[in-house]
Amino acid sequence: MPPARHHDMRTSPAHAGSARRGRVVGLGLCVVDHVYVVDSDDFGAERLRYRERLVSFGGMVANALAQAAALGCEAHILSQVGDDAEGRMLRSALTRAGLVTRRLRSRKGHATGLAVMLVDRGSGARRFLVADRRPFEHGAADFDLGPLREDCVLLVDGHFPAQARRALRRARALGARVVADFNQPTPAALSLMRWVDYPVVPFEFARAYGGTDPAVTLRRLRDDYGGEGVVTAGERGGFYLEGDRLVRYPALRARVRDTTGAGDAFHGAFAAALCHGADLSAAIAEGARAGARCCGALGATGHLQAPEQHWVGARRQGSR
Prior knowledge:
Blueprint: E1 23-27, E2 31-38, E3 50-58, H1 60-70, E4 74-82, H2 85-96, E5 99-100, E6 104-107, E7 114-120, E8 126-130, H3 134-137, E9 153-156, H4 161-174, E10 177-180, H5 187-192, E11 198-202, H6 203-210, H7 214-225, E12 230-232, E13 238-242, E14 245-249, H8 262-275, H9 280-294
Parallel strand pairs: 1-4, 1-9, 2-7, 4-5, 4-6, 9-10, 10-11, 11-12
Antiparallel strand pairs: 2-3, 7-8, 12-13, 13-14
């Protein structure tokens, strides 16, 4: 049996006319992104010529929180960087993007994580070069969970699993809602799923967990863990359940330059929409808009959804 959910969407302070700003708390990956636009997607070639280069903050939770902040939410990051120049650069960049970084820890003797992305100029195909972050995450000191409150949304990506488990338990005790982005159904990810209200997972997760039919994955997630799942499928849109009926939502048309961070933007807008009173379908619509907009610029946060472009769907719950 899936665990009981204790929060009530109808009486939660975030949905009862509270004057407080919506709050999204993100726990997970925070790195420096190096993005190179290259002439060819033949990534096996001995030499690749790049046309453009971008260095910015990155990581799923950092990118998603930047989107939530752009949509008017308090965005608190719980993560860890190295005690080095890159870590200080990340802290400054995240603060400029509107994130609350007081709980961003610096770990002495460790380097800040880097991620290198090669983006084909013609097709938009991407390839990633990332470090093994497990030694960096293992043994991390406890994160300060002070930003968690009843009416917030907690967003986790599976990094810092021990810390994520602490935060998920605290969120459940408070009645806060939880959104998760797990790339694969690993044992570590599934061990956290019992505390997740909205598992928003990519098609790769669904294929490994329930096969090629997303309805199987969504029903399994609901039956095993009790959450309301969403399967995202890029340019194909995505899927969720209304009752036992599979619903497919469309991908919005976009002039694609780089798809890096589109899923992160989806998660950030989805979480922000929940903070502003959206139901599941409305939150998905906001996420789809943000994801499509993100594809129009180089890097994960070059085109964030702006406040004047949102909350069309968030009013649906209150107008019924």
